[in-house]
């Protein structure tokens, strides 16, 4: 079926190249939007990863400080324990000496 002289066909054929360019631009724009969304998601992931890593590092530093404090306190308690044992031994010796006099 020939389209000779049909103004709609002539207009369509004249606009075909323009429509192809618009369609290609639409596909390119859609790809660009998809790439931008993927890049934004990646940036959010990297930010969350960095935040989590910083939080974990701070927590580890806090735990190290707490462990050092606990070791200091333990050393102090061990020293106090030694002094108390010596005092108890001395006290028991006095008790034994006093028992020996009464007998």
Protein described:
This protein has one helix and no strands. Helices cover 93% and strands 0% of the residues. The protein has 103 residues and is mainly alpha-helical.
List keywords for this structure.
single chain, mainly alpha, 1 helix, rod-shaped
DSSP helix count?
A: 1
Q: What is the approximate shape?
A: rod-shaped
Strand count, sense and barrel status of the largest sheet are: none
Which structural class should the secondary elements be placed in? mainly alpha
Q: Count the E strands.
A: 0
Helicity, as a percent range: over 70%
Rounded average pLDDT: 90
Report the C-alpha radius of gyration, rounded: 44 Å
Provide a concise account of the structure shown.
This protein has 103 residues and is mainly alpha-helical.
Topology:
Blueprint: H1 7-102
């Amino acid at each position: 079926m020939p389209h000779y002289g049909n103004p709609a066909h002539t207009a369509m054929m004249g606009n075909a190249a323009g429509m192809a360019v618009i369609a290609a631009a639409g596909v390119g724009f859609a790809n660009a939007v998809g790439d931008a969304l993927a890049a934004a998601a990646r940036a959010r992931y990297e930010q969350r990863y960095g935040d989590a890593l910083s939080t974990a590092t701070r927590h580890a530093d806090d735990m190290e400080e707490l462990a050092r404090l606990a070791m200091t306190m333990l050393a102090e308690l061990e020293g106090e324990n030694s002094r108390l044992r010596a005092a108890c031994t001395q006290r028991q010796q006095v008790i034994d000496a006093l028992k020996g006099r009464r007998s």
